[in-house]
Amino acid sequence: MKLTLKDYQADAVRQVLGRLGKARGLLDLDLTSSVALTAPTGAGKTVMAAAVIEALFFGNDDDDVEADPGATVLWFTSDPSLNEQTRHRLRQASERLTSDRLRVIEPTFQDERLRPGSVYFLNSQKLGKNSRLVKGGSAAEDGEMLVAPDLLPRTFWEVLANTIADEHTTLYVFLDEAHVGMNTSKRDLGEKSTIVRQLVNGEAGAPPVPIVLGISATVDRFKAAMESATGRTTLPDVAVDPVRVQESGLLKEKILLSFPVEAGTFDTVLLRHAVTRTKESGELWAAYHDAQGGSGDPVLPLLVVQVPNTPSDEMLLDAVQTIRAQWPELGPDGIAHVFGEHTTLSIGGHEIPYVPPEDVAERTHIRALLAKDAISTGWDCPRAEVLVSFRPARDLTHITQLLGRMVRTPLARSIPGDDRLNSVECMLPLFDQAAAYEVAARIMGAPDAGGGPTVQVASASYGVNAAIPEAVWEAYDRLPTQTVPRIGSRPVSRFTALGAALARDGIVADGHRRALGELVAFLASQEVRYADRVGAEIDDLLAMSGETIVIGQGLGGQVVTGNEAFELRSDERTIESDYRIARRALSPQLANAYADRLEATYQDDYFEAHLRTSALARIPEVIAALDEEADRLFQRWDNEHRLAIKALADDRRVCYADLRALAGEPQPIELQRPVVRMEATETTAGKPVPTRDRHLLADEAGRFPIGSLNGWEQAVLESELTRCVAWYRNPSRASFDSLAIAYLDKAGAWRRMCPDFVFFERVRDVVRPSIVDPHGVQFDDALPKLRGLAAYAATYEGLFHRIEAVAVVAAGTRLLDLTKPAVREAIGRATDAEALYLSAVAEDYA
């Protein structure tokens, strides 16, 4: 893979591969099967699919997955443009999935069967009743095929049957069900739905496809397509957690919704404002690009203008003229459209070219896009940052599809500390406001579950508060935030990846080779330490013991038996099989590096080198010691080069943060200073929100809005303001400027909690931070979060003045002082969060 998978992506890929392995086992019992991969909008389903396909074709040593030599993938959707976009992304995601492996099934397709090691793309229109792929030829009396000029020697159903019948082929159908029925009329939906069922269940002599992987935004969509599948085993779903998607940085953190507060027609006014916001966004991205050293291309944000399906010429002309007037520096080809007409539009002397939706992202000269339904039908353009829609919408599904196109981050990561670049603005004058708000709030998970974007109707930017003393910022800089461990990480791969990253950034010359050298030297020491056991393993690998049972006839016609033992020497092919196992145990790179060292030692004896490497890898103590050494070396190199890493651009620092997260335990990382925060200035009822002073970010008057705080949180804030010199409303999402604490949820999965407040107090002339977290005891995660906060306090309490969890219970407002060992011990024993606040270990909060 060219791309490093996010933690939730790696987990999902691992689970999908496990399900597909079980599905292959069911084929031995002549059972067909299906599994669903459910991923919310923006989760990176194509990247996950690329990793799955790459593992099917080539194996995956990190997850101990062997290649399926017969693997053939048929990718099926209802839209050819989506297929083309998927092909493009697969090539972007994987260096092994080259163009020759990604084949589109055209109407002229004539292969006898689908070939292993290839991904075939097919859309439902090509299987319509009048399609050449369905017509095929007709048989003559002599058994030969009569092929008319417009017919093929065989139908696609015959190709499919030949593929399934081939004992050397395993057919996997990837059903991109999230898009089935899109870009179609109600009249066509029935036929397309039928085609999906025909593909799954079999048609025209083709048997049911053996393995189906459905990829969708909701499990229900895939299950609906499988309703008519008879005799098919349904394997457990693989569901991607929406909260983890948001934490990954792939989705924008805030959605700004704009609605007129009075009746009237404001098309031109809103469009001018949308152009201004797009230009401002471009300037911000340019400044960020320059601040990061100017490497790569700057983000060029896109304005999307959605019009009705039958816009009048007057509407289109007004839109184009307004954009041109407000944006005079826009290039002549800066406006394009994705209308279904697929032709250049001539509007009042303006030529507006058509662009395929899948190409919009890369044609960065296009800065304004006119769209109808195409904006909400599966296309992807992460640089789309401002939307103005002049069509009404009440349907939740339609609104979800529309906003889903707008929430992806253009750099596939959040921008540290800058809410402006982590936001998307949608102007929706004709939308149902309640429906739009509901969709935006739940598109990545409900906020009360710890996820989802912040939805704001009216907002403003708040920058660094000039009145905050530098001593406060110095205390802020010392705050440790934590990573969430990635399950299934390999210490060896983690350390060598660190070496490669340090080499790429010019910090350690030839870092990857030096990292491998450190591990090779360690393995050499282990071979000396365990010399006797290595020798015994070599003898065991070289010798194959067996027994021959001799059956004969003795005196009187009795049958007699006897046993004869024998031993054979293993050949090169056998040792190579053992060496492949060693590669999985040590990591392919390390196994090869160590074998190269041995090959030089034993005078280019390839067999001896692979034999001794295989023997060493069979000793459990060696593998355990190797993992410990790799972790130790990672920590040493990371600490030695901490300052150099900190000086890198944001995109490179993200790489190191991801590597640290590969540890089996939460790791401390530096908390970055916030730069700009977008906060609501009005309630949904249009009333101004209250403000307070001394926040780290503020407006020119030194004030910060507190409209996002509930009544209880505001009460805690008022109490703390009587004793603090500064305060920080910690972002509720895990980001670079959010103090995040790792904890294990009830299912044993790592999560991050973000305490509500950090207060800064002057204690004996020293500014010290305090964590105060109001958290309801009624939530299922209350006790797991308390345990995480207690573990954090046990490790870092020396850096804080106070670490307190506050809750309102029957006895009043109570706190747990987590700097006290007795309180942490009580939390460890507790079975109920509310009981803790009612017990003797809690105190009254004042």
Give your account of this protein's structure.
- The protein has four domains: 7-240, Rossmann fold (3-Layer(aba) Sandwich); 247-457, Rossmann fold; 470-484 and 668-844, Trna Endonuclease, Chain: A, domain 1, CATH 3.40.1350; 491-660, no CATH class.
- The strands form ten sheets. Strands 1, 2, 3, 4, 7, 8, 9 and 10 form an eight-stranded parallel β-sheet that branches.
- It is of the alpha/beta class.
- Helices cover 38% and strands 20% of the residues.
- The chain contains 26 helices and 36 strands.
Give helix % range: 25-40%
Gap between N and C termini:
54 Å
Provide the low-confidence segments as ranges: 138-147, 178-192, 446-453
Question: Which architecture of the largest domain does the CATH hierarchy give at level 2?
Answer: 3-Layer(aba) Sandwich
The largest sheet, given as strand count, sense and whether it forms a barrel, is:
8 strands, parallel
**CATH homology-level superfamily of the largest domain:** P-loop containing nucleotide triphosphate hydrolases
* CATH fold name of the largest domain: Rossmann fold
Average the pLDDT over all residues and give the rounded result: 84
The assembly state of the depicted protein chains is single chain
| Helix-and-strand structural type | alpha/beta
Provide the number of structural domains.
4
Give the total of beta strands: 36
Beta-strand proportion: 15-25%
- Number of helices in the DSSP assignment: 26
Radius of gyration: 31 Å
Question: So what's the overall shape?
Answer: globular
